[in-house]
Amino acid sequence: MEWKAKWIKPSQEMGEVCPVFVREFDRSREWGRQIAKAELKVTALGVYEAVLNGKRVGDYVLAPGWTSYKTRLQYQVYDITKLLEDENLLTVTVGKGWYRSPIPGWITEEGKAQRAAVPAGLLAEITVTDTEGNSFVMGTDESWKAGESKIRFSEIYDGETFDASFEAGEYLPAAVFDWTTDNLIPQEGEVITEQEYVKAASVFTAPNGETVVDFGQEVTGYLQFTVDAKAGDMVEISHGEVLDKDGNFYNANYRAAKAKIYYTCCDGVQTYKPKMTFFGFRYIRLDQFPGTPKPELFYAIAVHSDMKRTGYLRSSNPLLNQLFSNIIWGQKGNFLDVPTDCPQRDERMGWTGDAQAFVKTASYNYDVDRFFTKWLADMAADQLPNGSIGHVVPTLYVGSGSAAWDDAATICPWQIYLTYGNKEILARQFDCMKKYIGFITDTTKDAWLWTGGEHYEDWLGLDAPVGSYKGSSRADFIASAFYAHSTSLVVKAGKVLGEDVSFYEELYRNIVETFRKTFTDYRTQTEHVLAVHFHLAEDPQKTADALADMVVSCGSKLQTGFVGTPYLLHVLSSYGHTDLAYTLLLRTEYPSWLYPVTKGATTVWEHWDGIMENGDFWSTDMNSFNHYAYGAVADWVYEEAAGIHTVEEAPGFERVRIAPQPDTRLEWLEASIDTRKGLVRSLWKQEEGRIRYEITTPSPAVIVIDGVETEVGPGEYIFYSHEQ
Question: What DSSP string describes 493-539?
Answer without folding.
Answer: HHHHHT---HHHHHHHHHHHHHHHHH-----SHHHHHHHHHTT--SS
